[in-house]
Design goal:
Radius of gyration: 30 Å
CATH topology of one domain: Methylamine Dehydrogenase, Chain H
Strand order of the largest sheet: 1-3-4-5
Number of strands: 30
Structural class: alpha+beta
Oligomer: single chain
Strand content: 25-35%
């Protein structure tokens, strides 16, 4: 079984033209050993506690295990003595002299004749490397290195698309390259992850490894990944074959950064805390949002009901917000306008959304709105600084005005309320270039495109499509103007599709007047995908058959204000 849980785009021009290979040296080995030891120690302690609770017995002592091994060795030796080495079938192998040193052989290497075929091995010519061998004219690796370098190249006109995949209980982050001119989408490299990924956020902030100087340059290409574990991993996207992230935001990093103990001082092992605190998460990380104007700030939402603000320059938690919500916080988004760059939008399973200015004085309560069911996703409008959108588990999309906060969540009034899907509205995207262009995606397997009328400010559906990715978990518009109409979609079938929505006739008719170069003429639709060789699970097949059988009965989705 394979599925993709989250995706995000990397803008053009940020990826290195030629990514570097991961260098594993002594310092890197020591760093990884420290981080891995923390996880291993905790796992051992958890296992011992679980076994003690279930059986009430102590684990076997080491000397008892050694005694068992000795008994087994003696038994094996006795069995060997029972073998008759004078047996005619065994004589020819000379087992009695099997362990004798090779020094008994003569200088010519002939010995007793058993190794005579290698008798002239000392007379063979030997060269330290193939480059020193005069008979080898084609230098080793020159042609293959050039080919590999060309295959790894990322052009300035290419986009990277990151997809968090879980496949047969193995989690990894796939780094795709999308070539728009060639209609080509392929996996450039991937990164192994420790747990099921839930959130992926691109970072334009150079993150150095502990003990290393901060990287220079205005541009950076990193990614933060939130998983079922409470830690947040940060990876360098310009390095391939990485074994471990550049940084881990959580308790483990805090313990390592505390430094080694003094000579003669006994190190006291500190177990991972299960209590909510101001330094790190203690449960799954469900959402991430990077501040595009203050590059060192990253916000995280967790199942521990808290929101944390991280300073990436120190890799420590700068502030913890424990009173925004009373249930799991599953969505958040920094304001995309520079004038409001410190305002954070959050959503929770407590059926509320909050707008908070992180510069506000201690004790200031955030503005709060209520919705009908659990929040799925929240987003600010990139074209209207006062409007934000919220999707819910019931398939409803809300539009709110941040200036009109209700006195209580129960008295919430939305600008409009749209029943976009019958199932959970798991993801939606606002086009960063085209005003009023919204895409919604649902676990009902459909993707719908909507037009917000610039006069009446009311939504109307443009087109609905099943793109064959199963239950849709993620949908995002490309961030660059040249590819503004490209929509990435991924879901339960483990497939990624990039849909050029500008090739759809209904889309062209709806937005022809808002974007240059788009008219109502009909063109061939473009849908770019990577072939998926994995078969879908039986349960997914059954659900798909049920959906197809009931498609005629369901018909078009309704829209209500």
């Amino acid at each position: 079984m394979s599925m993709i849980t989250a995706t995000t785009w990397v803008p053009r021009g940020y990826a290195a033209p030629f990514p570097t290979k991961y260098q594993f040296d002594e310092d890197e080995f020591e760093r990884i050993s420290k981080l891995a030891k923390l996880e291993l120690d905790d796992a051992k302690d958890d296992l011992a506690e679980a076994q003690a609770e279930l059986t009430g017995e102590k684990t076997p002592k080491k000397d008892e295990s050694d005694d068992d091994d000795d008994d087994e060795t003696h038994a094996t030796g006795a069995a060997m003595q029972d073998i008759d080495l004078q047996d005619d079938d065994l004589k020819e192998y000379d087992l009695e002299n099997y362990d004798n040193d090779d020094a008994e052989e003569n200088e010519d290497g002939e010995g007793n004749g058993s190794l005579s075929m290698f008798g002239n091995v000392r007379n063979l010519a030997y060269h330290g490397s193939n480059a020193e061998d005069p008979y080898i004219t084609l230098k080793e690796g020159e042609e293959s290195d050039d080919d590999e370098r060309e295959e790894m190249q990322i052009l300035p006109t290419d986009n990277m698309l990151l997809a968090a995949r879980i496949e047969d209980e193995v989690a990894h982050l796939e780094c795709y390259v999308y070539e728009d001119d060639a209609d080509n989408l392929y996996v450039h490299h991937d990164i192994m992850l420790p747990a099921i990924p839930l959130a992926v956020e691109w970072l334009n902030m150079p993150i150095s490894k502990p003990g290393e100087p901060a990287p220079e340059g205005q541009k950076a290409n990193f990614v933060a990944v939130g998983t079922m574990d409470p830690d947040i991993e940060i990876w360098d996207l310009d390095t391939v074959d990485c074994m471990y992230p550049n940084a881990v935001l959580g308790q483990g990093t805090a313990e390592i950064s505390a430094g080694p103990t003094m000579p003669g001082q006994k190190k006291k092992k500190k177990r991972k805390s299960k209590q909510i605190n101001d330094k790190y998460h203690i449960d799954s990380v469900l959402a991430l949002s990077a501040n595009r104007f203050h590059r060192n700030l990253l916000a995280s939402a967790s199942a521990d009901c808290t929101v944390k603000l991280w300073d990436l320059s120190t890799q420590q938690c700068a502030k913890s917000y424990n009173d925004f919500h009373t249930d799991k916080v599953c969505a958040l988004h920094f304001h995309p306008h520079e004038a409001h760059s410190t305002i954070l939008l959050t959503g929770s399973y407590d059926r509320t959304v909050c707008v908070a200015d992180l510069r506000a004085a201690e004790g200031t309560k955030p503005k709060r709105w209520g919705v009908d069911s659990d929040v799925e996703q929240v987003r600010w409008d990139p074209h209207n600084e006062h409007v934000f959108y919220v999707s819910t588990e019931s398939g409803i999309l809300y539009a709110f005005d941040a200036r009109n906060a209700p006195s209580s969540p129960e008295k919430t009034q939305a600008i409009w309320r749209l029943q976009a899907h019958e199932a959970s509205l798991s993801s939606f995207a606002l086009n960063p270039t085209v005003p009023g262009f919204i895409a919604t995606a649902s676990t009902d397997r459909t993707v719908k495109l909507w037009n917000i009328d610039q006069t009446t400010n009311q939504p109307s559906m443009v087109v609905s499509r099943d793109l064959g990715v199963g239950r849709v978990f993620s949908a995002n518009f490309a961030p660059d103007e040249a590819v503004a109409f490209r929509l990435s979609v991924a879901g339960s079938k483990g497939a990624v599709q990039v849909w050029d929505t500008s090739t759809n006739r209904a889309v062209r008719e709806a937005f022809a007047g808002r974007v240059k170069g788009i008219d109502a003429t009909e063109v061939k639709e473009r849908l770019v995908a990577v072939a998926n060789d994995e078969e879908e699970s039986d349960s997914d097949d059954d659900e798909e058959n049920e959906d197809e059988a009931g498609a005629d009965e369901r018909g078009w989705e309704s829209m209500s204000e």
